[in-house]
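seq/struct pair 1
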Amino acid sequence: MTTDDSMTTDTDRAATTLHGLFEHQARRAPEAVAVRCGDAELTYGELDARAGRLAAHLARSGLAPGGRAAVALGRGTEVYVAMLAVLKAGAAFVPLEPTAPDALLRHVLADAAPELVLTEERHRVRLADAGGAQPVCVDTLALPDGEFQCPEVAPGDLACVFYTSGSTGLPTGALVEHRNLLAAYAGWREVYGLTPEDRILQTASLEFDVFTADWVRALGTGATLVVAPFNLTLDRTADLAALPALVTEERITAMELNVRTARRLTALLSATGGSLPGVRLLTVGAEKWYLDEQLGLQRLLGDGTRVLNVYGLAEATVDSTYFDVRGAAAAEGAERVSLVGRPFPGTRIYVLGPHATPVAPGRVGEIAIAGSGLGRGYLNRPADTARRFVRADYDPDGRVLLTGDLGLLRADGVLEFVGRASTVVGRLGAERATSVATRVKAAARAEGALRAHPAVQEAAVVEVEPSPGQRLMVGYAVPVQGPPDAVDGWSLTQYLLTELRGYSTPAAVITVPELPRTRAGKLDRTKLPLPAPPKHTAPRSAKAGGSRKGGGKAGGGANNTTEVTGCLALFITVVTTILTRALTDNFFPGSTDLSAVPPEYHFWFGLLYFCECAAFGTGLAFLFLGLPAVLRQGRSLRLSLLTHFSVFWLLASWWPQDNLYRLAKPTDWPRQTALVYVFNIPLMLAAVVVVIFLLQKPKTTKK
């Protein structure tokens, strides 16, 4: 390590503000290139000076320490001047994509209530219409020379407000302090091995937390931030083929992509035989990324590149865990698991059970995040803060963030991401939390099995609500490129029935040309097509119905299987009833003797004996075929198995019980007592189990 590197590290550790971290790099190497976008670039000295002059103007315009200013600028170098200027003025910046939909702009500006909006002349009118804050157009602003004395800022002061993607409702402002970003930076620097020689590529959009993470990593280290001229996150028409050339031309060493872009990049490199020369670090996040995909991209890029799967939330300062796939062998079932690894330094990860307490390794629960990167809470959302940021006696800080994601800690300490819960699990009752976890695990298992099909390129399994109060688990598959109708929803549904052995199988699989995405590149569940009604579903030809956008082919194999199971159950019941009635006198001689019964009652007693035999036959059919139906109700495995046996006992015990009672003398107390404890008491207990099962049925709620 050189003397300069030692000084950098010492000063980095002593920095108490985000802009202070940058200012040290500007003093250390003012001539080094800080930001580059196309032919435009700013050195550290130029960026620091321009940010200082803009900060002075913002202070004169009414931006006071502790205030907020929205930054809504296009791709270029000025956006970094603006964010640093807001920080130097002692305020917090709110990153806002100026090309976002009007509804999103209005919501963020109304919720954040910034004192100023830093933008460009071309966006001024639109942003002025969306909110009442004073616009400051940095591209037409004449800034006088002069020094600006930054106000005193504490580590616990607000640095920025990240607005979440809004996947579970309206976007919410996550409050992130200077110390949170400094702690996150320290973890990135240690794990990523950041140095001033790095050239970090930025492809994310301004509104996403990764955008801020990219420039903090670069400008906090003294590296060069290279801004891609295209926006791979929002611009769906952007030509990904230009990325390898850009990486080579700009000598990129580190970059982060979302999962959707990483998949497209993998396909491009596989088809062209290309690579990303010089890139030593590639991180991928924002959505579930499977181990086989990570291994595949690692093989394409070679051992000289670290390919990391990262996981985190804006509320916990972007990234909380990472998984380095180098050295990992291609394990069986890699297409069914997503490993997000171990926590960054300063971060702690827990997996919580139904009572919001840590569970043992290997058990699925809600992922909770704690540590120095944990933000302050939500802007204008005290109720949400209480629900998501909760007290935790098991954590040294006594506070954790409930993510709403399910995972499990493996025996080796690696965190496995299972799936996204529709609601926060840790604060629910034990029964409902168990039900949510069961449904998420079932969907994750089905999705992994669907991805494993050789004709499927991409897949998702989610719960949809085709009608109020009705929940269905539906699979969506993007077929690999090939002849039309090479694979369809019906055949994929049959495949899942075989793979999953009937347990928690999607009601249908719909083939779609691509999965709909949100602005953040995540799966947009609201735009998935609904399955066709069962009566309209036919193999290889049924079109997906529903009122949502999108299209595809739906399969109704689950309905066919239900019919087959029903026929088999009826067959078992009929055959067993006949055999049971025929063998009654062999097992219980004299129990059905009606010689002492008046002739007019013979029919009724004979009907009773037949019904006992039919109940026994039905019970056996349920014993052999009824367990999948019980498991599909979403209760815990223990309660489901107990209920399955209880229903069998309630049905099947009538035949031996009544026959033995009829053969026992009323005064044979030892035999009467044994019959009561062998049959009657278990019958009552079985009824209690069924009642508990019914009472614990989750209430139907809309997403």
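seq/struct pair 2
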Amino acid sequence: TLYPDQDHGADTDWIDEISRTPVSHVHNLSLMGGNSKTNYIANLNYASRQGIMKKSDFESFQGRIEVTHRMFDDKLKLKFGLFGKKNQMESTTNGGSFRGWVYGQATRRNPTDPVRNEDGTWNENVSKFEYENPLALLYEAEGNVKKTQLRYNGNIVYNPIKDLTLSAVFSYIRDNMNRGYGETLNHISALRDGLAGWSSVGAYTKMEKLMELTAQYSKEIGAHKFTVLGGYSYNETDFEELWIDNYGFQDDYFGGWHNIGIGSALKDGKANIGSKKTPTNLIGFFGRATYSFKNRYLLMGALRYEGASQLWGTDNAWGLFPSVSVGWRITEEAFMKNQKIFDDLKLRVGYGVTGSQPKNPFLGVAMLKYGSYAFVNGNWIQTIVPASNPNPDLKWEEKKETNIGLDFVSWGGRLSGSIDYYNRDVDGLIYEYGVPTPPNLYNKTMANGGTMRNRGVEVLVTVVPVQNKDFEWSTTGTFSLNSNKLISLSGSIFKSDYDYFNTGTVEYSGQVADSHRVQVGESIGNFYGFKVVDVDSEGRWIYEDRNGELVNYKDFTHAPEDKHVIGNGLPKWYAGWNNTLRYKNFDLNVTMRGAFGFQIINGGRMNYENVKNSRFENRLKSVNDLVFGKHTLSSEVEPEFNSYYVENGDYWKIDNITLGYSFGQVGKYIKSLRVYGSVLNALTITGYKGIDPEVSTDGLTPGYDTRDRYPSVRSFTFGVNVKF
């Protein structure tokens, strides 16, 4: 909906202008053969995929071959594999594929704006901040990203004696990426920002080496079985990248990213040039032992000793991580012999510790960086200043998990499932603590501190209700329940000044606000903002303040102390239901899943239900809805992040429906033929008002549905499987 003076005469569906009904095709060919000594498998795959947005094409070609050879009376087995792929995608943004900003501009663009002016030029308003023609963003930009990968892997297995197995695994992976991107002189960056022909090129190479050596001894003596395994692993990565950005080109023909050096910004010292190198390695020594008695009592213990280069310079580059588990197959006991309920019933209990090294290198040592400029001996030189404090006590984050599980099989295998309970504590969370200067040279230190806890239950049940010659039905249900809590932010050495920290931001009408709070004793994923409970007779917010009292809009101070927990972006429980049916030669598969007990920050409503939308001229029709069923929002109300834009996110999805028909052997050469059709993202049942309730649940800021989020799509596929 628009104010009358915003009608510019056109009728433009901006989303329709930038989108299309895409068509993709995928081709796959597999070959296999050999004899008892040597066999092979080879595969070729080609895919051409169109995105739902214009100029969002992706093409890939990949191949794989694997050869296995046995010799010395099958005591020695050699396996070698080679995998290669090449991907290429059209680029309308620097270093990526489709520019998400285009979608955001299309949603906020005035629908009465024309795509082009009468003289054929793009309709632009260079005086309006971040208000850009989405079609011009697409068609006045050009580029691509090319990626290649080669992966070699080999495996040697040798059995010198009956019960001893020696194994060696090797792999080498090399990734290369080359990218180029440029904007024309008709792009908004040139018209508004003076960056004539802004262009960029870049490349990276990533190499990864892996070697793992193991020796395993297995023995069975009467009712006793045991295995002992020891090994060594080495993993090394090396990442190198370079890039250059430039602008100041005279035309669109002789410059750009294909001839990036001639832009004037490079000569004027305004271009960006950079490179970096990041090597890492991880070394591990490990051992594992298993024991079983009459396949009834089971025991496994393992120990891993690992060293990571990211902790170089600390006293804790190496970490020791043990694990142990026991199992009891209850149905093997004498008192279970006459029962008719369970075919198999097994109880499992386990405890283990795993380590996570920091992602960034050198966090435990003092580092330097370039600072401001100083005038020395008649010259301006860039100073070198502290970038971090040393912390030799920095160590691995440790995940300590206890698991109790029960596996069961009944009804001749037609009923099976498992129930698991877990408690997972992450100790020694790496956190940046504020420290005084002096005595420290830098005001923050990275250190191990808090503890985070996750607890949950996971249930899986599979049933085959019908099973005969013509008809079979198999159904699987899953359920998981999870809760989490921050136990502490302080460690044994470094203490946090507060029992919380704010993280994440939301955007509304050119402003930003903190969105999430992580607090000791509370769940991860809490939204933190102002709580509105009503509107007055003129449509102005009524708030709940820090004391639980109701305060009207004019008297509310919007102090940080008046914010509340107004939702949580992590689902409390998940469920799934998969069904596979076969009737003669027909097969049908239906996959469903859902998430429940969480909320979503609706960034679209927060921006486009804004009655004072001075920056973005488009609005949702819901801007005229009665708030809390009483009154439309007053034009006096300033845009803000509050609880009115937090919604229940519960959903149930029919994820995939696939219907196929198998012809069996056709003619002399076709051993089997199957045709099928499927629909992906078939149906979503939800009360959420946004495009899709399935939003990100990663990290510390889950549950934010941004206004520029790329839309979900429903896809239809027709395929043919042929075996010769």
